[in-house]
Amino acid sequence: MNKSQLDQRLAGNLQLCAEKYPELESRYGKGIAIYKDGNVESVGRDSRETCYYTVAGPAPTGKPLVWYTVEINEKTQVYTCSCPDWQMKHAPEIGIARFCKHIVAAKLEAKHGQYGLLEALIETGDVPAAEGQHAF
Ligand SMILES: [Zn+2]
């Protein structure tokens, strides 16, 4: 996928998100920006299939980036982030998980390797079954 195809796909996903989950739109847009800025890094996966990411930004002009830890387990559909938005429960809950912009960015980074809950919600509007019962 080249850059313009990727841009088109991300714009399409943002549009779908806006239609289905308007409460998530601004965070989805910011997650795309973080992903495009390259401020998301996969840092590993443990034996229980939890994937770890460090994600930053976007920072206000002149301020250093603040990095947060995102944990995603598609098997148990547990998504967490260490940022205040997620921890204070301001990030919207959709389906069975809460999504901040860092989680969106981490999922975009993981997209090619791991299709999961957020992608299913955005693309089909369905909550897939947990524990490896995914049909995709
Ligand atoms: Zn976050």
Low-confidence stretches: none
- Please report the total strand number as a whole number: 6
Residue-averaged pLDDT: 87
The whole-angstrom Rg is: 14 Å
Give the total of domains.
Answer: 1
User: What's the tally of helices?
Assistant: 5
Largest sheet, order of strands side by side? 1-2-3-4
Helix share, percent: 25-40%
Shape: globular
- Which H/E pattern describes the elements? HHEEEEHEEHH
Largest sheet: 4 strands, antiparallel
Strand content: 15-25%
Unique ligands: zinc ion
Span between termini: 20 Å
Structural class: alpha+beta
Structure description:
With 136 residues, this protein is an alpha+beta fold. It has one domain. The chain is 38% helix and 20% strand. The chain is built from five helices and six strands, in the order H-H-E-E-E-E-H-E-E-H-H. The strands form two sheets. The chain has a four-stranded antiparallel sheet. The protein has a two-stranded antiparallel sheet with strand order 5-6. Strand 3 and strand 4 form a beta hairpin. Helix 1 runs antiparallel to helix 2 and helix 2 packs across helix 4. The model has no long low-confidence stretch (mean pLDDT 87). Zinc ion (ZN) binds next to helix 3 and helix 4.
